[in-house]
Amino acid sequence: MTGQTDDPGRAGQSDPTRAGRGRGLRTALLLAVTVVAIVLAAQVMHLIPNSLNPFAEKTKDRSGPVLLQSIRDLSRYEAASGNFQVIVDLEKDATFLPRAIRGQRTLFIGNGSVDAYVDFAKLGSGAVTVNKDRTVATVTLPHAQLEPTNLNSSRSYVYASQRGLTNRIGDFFGSAPNNQQQLNVLAAQKIQTAATESGLRDRADQNTKLMVGNLLKALGFKTVTVTITGEQ
Length: 232
Known about the structure:
The chain is an alpha+beta fold. It contains four helices and eight strands, in the order αβββββββαααβ. It has helices at residues 16-44, 165-173, 180-197, 200-218, and strands spanning 76-93, 103-119, 128-130, 136-142, 145-146, 150-151, 157-163, 223-229. The strands form two sheets. Strands 1, 2, 5, 6 and 7 form a five-stranded antiparallel sheet that branches. The protein has a three-stranded mixed sheet with strand order 3-4-8, covered by helices on one side. β3 (128-130) and β4 (136-142) form a beta hairpin. The protein is elongated.
C-alpha cells in the first residue's frame, strides 16, 4: 500500500532512547534513596553535625510577649519550706481482661516543695500591745498555714511503665488519654498530705515567733512576748 511508511522490521523493537531515559530515571531514583538512607543512618549514629545535616530539626520559639495580669500586695511571712519526694504507683486494669491485654502500671517519681507562712493581714486590732514606756510588747499571731504544693516538673518523671497490648495500640494511634496530668495531681496531693502531717507548720510558728521577737527587741523593746493562737 502506497501510504504506509512504517518499517515492519522494527515492530518488535523498543525505542532505545526511551529505554535509556527509563534506566537513567531508575538510576537517579536509586541514588537519591541511597543518599537519604546514608544521611539518616549517619544522623542516627551522630556522625553529621546538626549544622550540616539537611534533615536536622530546628526549634523556633514563636511565643508572644508575657502579659502582666495583676499585682497584689503580700502581707505574709514565709517562715519555713519543706522539700518532699513521693513514688506514685498507679495501676489501671480491666475487670475481665488480663493485664497483658488491657492494663497499665506506672511508677512516677514526684519531687515538690511546700511553703509555710504566717498571714499578718489576719492580725486583729488587739494583736499587738505595748506599755507606756515602750519597753514591753505582747504580740499574738495566728498559726502558720501551708501553701499548695509546688511540684518541680524538671525533677518529676516517669520511672517505669508497663502497658498492655491495647494500651500500646491506643498510644500509637493517639487515642489513649495522657495520664501525665493525673500523675502530677496525685503526686501533689500526696505531698500536700505529707506536709500537713509533718512538723512544717510548727517549725514556721517557731521561726515567726523568733523573727518578731528579734525585730521588736531591735526597735528597743526590753521584754517581748509572742504567742500563737487560733486554729492550726
